[in-house]
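Reposting from the mailing list since nobody answered there.

I have sequence plus structure tokens for a pair of proteins and want to know whether others read the tokens the same way I do. The first protein:
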Amino acid sequence: MALDGRGGHRRTAASQRPGPDRLNRLVQAPPPCSRTPTGLVPTVVGRAFLREAEAAVSAARRARSHAAHGQGPGRPSRFQRC
């Protein structure tokens, strides 16, 4: 998570800890229409979406590296070139 000066890691740690602070934050939360997209990420759906995106990026990177060395995705041999 990027630390852009807002203290994001402290906020998420406080929101995961049950207590009156979390209850006050839930009561004073802004309506969903004005909430920023970054505020919607640390949910279960957001984590699943981030995991899917990361898996897709890693799969694309793997396929690109295989194609760069002249072997298909089903060719595990390291020494086969073009």
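The second protein, same order (residues first, tokens after):
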Amino acid sequence: MPSFSLAVPESWWEFGIRPEGREATVRTLVDERVRETPELAPYRAEVTSMLRKMAKDAHDSGALYMGCMAENFDGIPLSATVTVSVLGAKNKQGVALSTDPRAIAESLRSITPRREGDAWRKVTTVDLPDVGPAARTYGVEDLPVAEGDSRTLRMALTQTYVPYREPPTRLCSSQGPAPCWIWPRRSMTSSTL
């Protein structure tokens, strides 16, 4: 399995997402959190179910790692996840694609909102400490609730593509979606993120 390092805040949940051992890990995590935060006790079943589903979805999508959080901010519940996947950098014909972050950024599409409150996406390159250059997208997008479902969920989304050192034909992709709530008088724009 490829190795990588990712740091998330202490309050986040981190656990193995592979089917073997997942159930025991989720149960242990929930038990620890309920001990630390007794107010969670009435929500034990819901939290357990949410973590099971998130871990299964992450594993089924090919992710190697998942971290997640669920907290209240001023009485507003917020959840977020981050997944890490290693992607092959080849097209459908098997030809190697560039793993240069500038080339990756050029191949990604920005979304310009037509009016306030519309979905948007920025594409850039960033210099990550101890890693080097990476391509990144960030914005507010409407993602399908499920495959084949016409409903969407507005999400704040960041994706970072880091060239894998060995073999150089791979990319490490981290993705961090979180639901957005947009109030009528205040919409989320690139300047408020």
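Reply #1 (J.P.):
I read it the same way you do. Strands lie at 13-14, 65-73, 76-88, 120-128, 132-144, 152-163, 170-179.
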